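Lecture notes, continued. The same structure-token format from the folding unit now serves as the input rather than the output. Read the line below as a description of shape only.
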């Protein structure tokens, strides 16, 4: 079982539009409404693969009730933490050329009692978990050290923990030695405080995160592929993608694929790349099923192309 923790979930509305023009009336070609939040998306991808998952998340108001309903319809066990504030609603505008514009609301502020209840809920559901995936931004009220506390408690209970967050929350959590962290290129550059222009730059940054506490780093480099760096080696994975429809949740699908395949080594990286590549071919934040995967399109190698320039360098 994979337990996911999403401290700041959302109700996500995605509209497919021909092009985004400021000040104009734009007619959507399609629309979707999905439960959102990085941990929620990991649970959705795990469930789509036919595996058991439990999603721990604070929920409030009508949007929160709808998130729970949508998750239940997808076969996901929900461990809700009732909060007074209303769950946030996010908007994504997906243009025909693949450009995505997102408007993310801040979400509710959690009281001290709600914070304690969230931690208690994670603890009570972690006993049967093969992995605990803590994902996304922290809502107002939670200290940047909150994820570090979760990592420490998870390890004390014998669980493995994957962390997908950024900024100070990531840096604080590194000291607790999470089993794997999954930054994208922008988050990786922010964490080490320098630009990334090549795959080699990304590799050095991932190694630096390991030196400061991460036991393994699964770094998403967007269209350029993914890196896995651990104490047993480093690998680079990429996949052929004919057309990108939406990249919403692609990184979350990658993390789910990685954990489903055991969360270690090149086989898990290949699964991560396959799931991410499948996700970008689907609308909105739809998570791929096994039928959507194309393992033959995935390449994983220990011969990392250090000099390859990133398609979208991060300054």
């Amino acid at each position: 079982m994979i337990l996911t923790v999403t401290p700041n979930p959302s109700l996500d509305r995605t509209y497919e539009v021909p092009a985004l023009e400021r000040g104009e009336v734009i007619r959507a070609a399609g629309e979707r409404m999905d439960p959102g939040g990085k941990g929620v998306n990991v649970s959705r991808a795990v469930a789509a693969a036919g595996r058991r998952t439990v999603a721990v998340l604070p929920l409030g108001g009508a949007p929160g009730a709808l998130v729970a309903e949508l998750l239940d319809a997808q076969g996901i066990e929900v461990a809700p933490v009732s909060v007074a504030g209303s769950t946030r609603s996010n908007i994504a505008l997906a243009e025909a050329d693949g450009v995505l514009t997102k408007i993310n609301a801040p979400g509710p502020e959690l009281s001290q009692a709600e914070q304690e209840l969230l931690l208690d809920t994670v603890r009570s559901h972690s006993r049967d978990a093969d992995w605990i995936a803590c994902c996304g931004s922290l809502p107002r009220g939670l200290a940047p050290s909150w994820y570090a506390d979760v990592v420490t408690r998870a390890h004390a209970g014998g669980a493995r923990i994957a962390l997908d967050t950024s900024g100070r929350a990531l840096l604080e959590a590194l000291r607790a030695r999470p089993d794997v962290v999954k930054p994208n290129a922008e988050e990786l550059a922010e964490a080490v405080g320098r630009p990334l222009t090549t795959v080699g730059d990304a590799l050095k940054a991932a190694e630096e995160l390991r030196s400061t506490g991460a036991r393994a780093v699964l770094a998403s480099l967007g269209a350029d592929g993914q890196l896995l760096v651990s104490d047993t080696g480093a690998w680079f994975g990429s996949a052929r993608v004919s057309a990108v429809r939406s990249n919403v949740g692609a990184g979350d699908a990658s993390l789910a694929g990685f954990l489903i395949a055991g969360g270690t080594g090149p086989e898990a990286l290949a699964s991560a790349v396959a799931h991410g590549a499948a996700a970008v071919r689907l609308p909105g934040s739809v998570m791929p099923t096994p039928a959507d995967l194309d393992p033959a399109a995935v390449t994983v190698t220990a011969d990392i192309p250090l000099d390859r320039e990133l398609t979208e360098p991060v300054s």
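Point for the exam: Residues 2-314 form a domain with the UDP-N-acetylmuramoyl-L-alanine:D-glutamate ligase fold (CATH 3.40.1190.20).
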